Amino acid sequence: MSEPILKVENLNRYFGALHATRNVSFEIMEGEVRAIIGPNGAGKSTLMDLITNRTVPSSGKVLFRGDDITGLSPDKIVHKGMTKCFQISKLFTSLTVYENVQIARIEMNKKTFSLFPVHDRYLKEEVKRYLSLVGLESKMNEVAAYLSYGDQRRLDIAIALAMDPKLLILDEPAAGVAREEAYTLMQLIRKLAEERNMTIIFIEHDMDIVFNYADVISVLRDGELIASGTPEEIKENQYVQEAYLGG
Ligand code: ADP
Ligand code: MG
């Protein structure tokens, strides 16, 4: 039996009078691929920001790998094994693919091996390993700005993987890429989850992708979690039918 890696308990967040997250509670099992769906403004991104503590909850708790991480700095949360994929806008576009991952890895190693600086050759092997996981090893000397959008997404994922996450959070990983590339990216994400026993949470609008790649789907509406279930269960949900599947 797998354990819940993440537990969210009665989370609330107000922005002034706006109740953006309404008493949300759920659990995610280790190794699970969870999709979060809901219309624009439903509170999906806010919920992810609360889980990673980029936004402070008005009330409620986040438990990760058995520890209460509510209020822990985003930096410490990364070191506990939870990484939210950086947006592409965070890439160092004038640096190479290799250098982008190297920076992330140096930051990680600094905190892990602060007394013993990591040997250059070891670092190089590490960086190459992360790049090969996403299929970018052959492009490691290319400047990030000149990559295709899909490859920038891959680089984004390689940087996140360089943080050695147990839980990886992706906000619309397939947004803006062609359908075929979106499927390739999602296959890569699923494969990483399976091979590395990584848990994934992804926000996604494309229902084909959601129904094909999620183990469990959670539906947010007006800040409230209105349903969670397998793709088969969620397909039967009345709200999902009306909002997404044309009644
Ligand atoms: P989603 O990601 O589902 O589209 P968001 O989580 O971005 O939704 O937003 C949920 C609601 O909270 C929206 O009404 C949005 O305008 C509001 N909101 C999000 N962030 C802030 C903020 N920093 N200040 C004020 N309102 C915000
Ligand atoms: Mg959003």
Annotate the secondary structure layout.
Blueprint: E1 4-15, E2 18-29, E3 33-37, H1 44-51, E4 59-64, E5 67-68, H2 74-80, E6 82-84, H3 97-112, H4 120-133, H5 149-161, E7 167-171, H6 179-195, E8 199-203, H7 207-213, E9 216-221, E10 224-229, H8 231-235, H9 238-244
The protein binds adenosine-5'-diphosphate and magnesium ion.
Magnesium ion (MG) binds next to α1.
Organism: Lacrimispora xylanisolvens
Protein name: Amino acid/amide ABC transporter ATP-binding protein 1 (HAAT family)
GO molecular function: ATP binding; ATP hydrolysis activity; L-isoleucine transmembrane transporter activity; L-phenylalanine transmembrane transporter activity; L-valine transmembrane transporter activity
Q: What does this protein look like?
A:
One of its GO terms (molecular function) is L-phenylalanine transmembrane transporter activity. This is Amino acid/amide ABC transporter ATP-binding protein 1 (HAAT family). InterPro entries: AAA+_ATPase (IPR003593), ABC_AA/LPS_Transport (IPR051120), ABC_transporter-like_ATP-bd (IPR003439), ABC_transporter-like_CS (IPR017871), BCA_ABC_TP_C (IPR032823), P-loop_NTPase (IPR027417). Keywords: ATP-binding, Nucleotide-binding, Transport. The chain has nine helices and ten strands. By secondary structure, it is of the alpha/beta class. The protein has a six-stranded mixed β-sheet with strand order 6-7-8-3-9-10, with helices on both faces. It has a four-stranded antiparallel β-sheet with strand order 2-1-4-5, covered by helices on one side. It is globular. It binds adenosine-5'-diphosphate and magnesium ion (MG). Magnesium ion is lined by residues 44-45. Adenosine-5'-diphosphate (ADP) binds next to strand 2 and helix 1.
